[in-house]
Design brief:
442 residues; alpha+beta; Jelly Rolls; 10-stranded mixed β-sheet; 4-stranded antiparallel β-sheet; globular; binds heme C
C-alpha cells in the first residue's frame, strides 16, 4: 500500500451536533447512562429536524417516493423506532458505501449521516422523542420545482418513446425503453441530467438509468450516460472535459417503477447541454463496464459467492466515479486499484442493495489519479441463501442473465485519460495540498 494521505473527513462530520459528543466521537457506544443524560436534552426542533431536512425530506415528503412524510414533528414522531432502526443500520438514507473499508470517502452529493448524527437520532428516540422549543426549528427546506433542470436549459431533450402506465397496485417493475436522439453530427456533452416526468411521475420512479447506444444499438461512449434517483441533480463535467455523443445515437432508459396506490403515468427524460459545434474537449469522459464477471456460477443456497473482473487503464487516468450493478442476490462489491508496481489499494466497498442504483462520484479534489497500466479490480459477492430477504428462491442455481431473477456482477467506471505531463502535474498538486494522491509511480 502506498502512503496516501487519508485525512479527508466525510462531509457530514462538519455538522457535528455538539450536545452529543459525549467526550468521544462514538456516540453509538456510549454507556446507557451517558445516553440517557444526553438524550434528555436532544429535541426534535433543535437537533433532529436539521438532519431530516438535509438527508431525508427530499424523499420523505408529500408527493415524493418515501412511504411517509418526515417534515413535521407530528409526521416523524410515530416513526421514531423505525427511523432509529433504519439509520443505525445505515439503510436510510440510501447510500451504501462502506465507511470502514477503502481509502476514499469524499463524494459529491453525499446525503449519508455521520456517526454523531446517528447518535443524535438514537438519543432523541431513546430519550422519549421530545419536541423541544418551536423557536429552534429551522426554516422549512424549499424543494425544487419538478420541472426544473439543474444543468440549465438543455440543448437537447430526449424522452422515452412511449408513456409508461404504473398501475395503482402491483409488484415493483423494471423496463427498458430506447429513444432516438435525432442527432445528425458528433457532439460533446458538457452536462447531462435525467428526470422523471411530468407531474406526479416522480412518485413512482425509483430509478432511471440512461445509457448511450450507437445507431446499431451497441453501448457507446462506454454505456451509462446518467442516472436519476430522488435528490439527484445533474452531472456537469469540468470545463474542457466532455462525453462524445455520436450522430445517430440512441438513449436507453432502464426504469424501476413502484406502485403508490393510484394510476400514474411517466415519460422520463434526459436533458443534455452540448459544447458548441465543432468543439473537441481536451479530456473525453468515458464510462466503461468493468468487463467479464458474466460467467457467474452461484450454487443454490450459497452465501458469499465471489467473482472478479478487471479493467486496465491504458493511459494515466482520473477516475470520476463508479456504479455497482448487481441483481437481487448482489451483496457487496469492492473496487481496488492494482498499480503497475503491484501495490494494491482498496478504494471503496459498497454494501449493495438492488433497490437503489447509485453512482458514487468522487469529490474532484480526491478523485483517484491512476498511473498508466493500473488495473481496476472489481470483486463481487452474491448471497443466494434464504437469509437474503431479496432472494426470490434460494433453491435455484443462478447464473448471469438480463432477467431480474438472473444475476449480474457489473461495475461501471467513469474516467478520463490524461497525458503523462498532465498526470504528473495533477499528482504533484495533490501532494502539495495534502489530498489523496496515489504515489504509485512506476
Ligand atoms: C432517496 C430517497 C430516500 C431518502 C433520501 C430517504 N429515504 Fe427513507 N425510504 C425511502 C423509500 C423509497 C422507502 C420505502 C422502501 C424501503 O423501505 O426501502 C423508505 C423507507 C424508510 C423507512 C421505513 C418505513 C416503513 O415502512 O417501515 C424509514 C423509517 C425511513 N425510510 C426513514 C428515513 C430517514 C430517517 C431518512 C434520512 C436519514 C431517509 N429515510 C432517507 C426513500 C428515501
Amino acid at each position: 500500500m502506498g502512503s496516501c494521505d487519508r485525512s479527508v473527513l466525510p462531509a457530514g462530520l462538519a455538522t457535528l451536533v455538539g450536545v452529543l459528543v459525549l467526550g468521544s466521537p462514538f456516540g453509538l457506544v456510549a454507556t446507557a447512562q451517558q445516553s440517557r443524560s444526553a438524550a434528555s436534552s436532544v429535541t426534535f426542533t433543535k437537533d433532529v429536524a436539521p438532519i431530516l431536512q438535509r438527508s431525508c425530506q427530499h424523499c420523505h415528503r408529500p408527493g415524493s417516493i418515501g412511504p411517509m412524510s418526515l417534515i413535521s414533528f407530528e409526521d416523524a414522531r410515530p416513526w421514531a423506532r423505525a427511523i432509529k432502526n433504519r439509520v443505525v443500520q445505515r439503510q436510510m438514507p440510501p447510500w451504501h458505501v462502506d465507511r470502514d473499508a477503502g481509502t476514499l470517502h469524499k463524494f459529491k452529493d453525499d446525503p449519508s449521516l455521520s456517526d454523531a448524527e446517528i447518535a443524535t437520532i438514537s438519543a432523541w428516540v431513546d430519550g422519549g422523542t421530545l419536541r423541544g422549543n418551536p423557536a429552534d426549528l429551522p426554516a422549512p427546506r424549499q424543494f425544487d420545482d419538478a420541472d426544473r433542470w439543474h444543468i440549465g436549459k438543455p440543448d437537447l431533450i430526449v424522452s422515452m418513446p412511449v408513456e409508461a402506465t404504473i398501475a395503482e397496485a402491483g409488484p415493483d417493475w423494471w423496463a427498458n425503453y430506447t429513444a432516438e436522439t435525432g442527432l445528425t453530427e458528433d457532439r460533446y456533452i458538457k452536462a447531462v441530467e435525467a428526470k422523471p416526468g411530468p407531474g406526479a411521475a416522480a412518485r413512482v420512479v425509483h430509478h432511471e438509468v440512461a445509457s448511450l447506444l450507437g445507431p446499431d444499438d451497441a453501448p457507446a461512449a462506454g454505456g451509462t450516460l446518467v442516472e436519476y434517483a430522488v435528490g439527484k441533480n445533474g452531472d456537469v463535467f469540468p470545463d474542457g472535459a466532455g462525453k462524445l455523443i455520436k450522430a445517430g445515437s440512441k438513449i436507453r432508459f432502464n426504469m424501476h417503477y413502484h406502485s403508490v396506490g393510484e394510476v400514474i403515468k411517466d415519460r422520463s427524460q434526459v436533458g443534455i447541454v452540448l459544447y458548441p459545434k465543432g468543439y473537441v474537449p481536451k479530456h473525453v469522459i468515458n464510462t466503461v463496464l468493468a468487463p467479464n464477471a458474466d460467467d457467474l456460477d452461484i450454487p443454490a443456497g450459497a452465501d458469499n459467492v465471489r467473482s472478479d473482473a478487471y479493467y486496465k487503464m491504458e493511459r494515466p487516468a482520473h477516475l470520476v466515479g463508479f456504479m455497482p450493478h448487481m441483481h437481487n442476490r448482489g451483496k457487496r462489491q469492492c473496487l481496488e486499484a492494482i498499480y503497475p508496481n503491484m501495490a494494491v489499494e482498496q478504494l471503496n466497498c459498497v454494501n449493495y442493495d438492488f433497490n437503489w442504483q447509485i453512482v458514487y462520484n468522487y469529490a474532484d479534489d480526491v478523485a483517484p489519479l491512476l498511473p498508466a497500466g493500473t488495473i481496476m479490480h472489481v470483486i463481487s459477492w452474491h448471497d443466494n441463501s434464504a437469509a437474503n430477504k431479496n432472494n426470490p428462491d434460494p433453491r435455484n442455481w443462478v447464473g448471469f442473465g438480463n432477467r431480474t431473477t438472473d444475476d449480474m456482477a457489473r461495475h461501471w467506471l467513469t474516467y478520463y485519460y490524461m497525458s503523462d505531463d498532465e498526470y504528473k502535474a495533477e499528482t504533484a498538486a495533490r501532494v502539495r495540498i495534502g489530498q489523496h494522491a496515489t504515489n504509485q509511480q512506476q
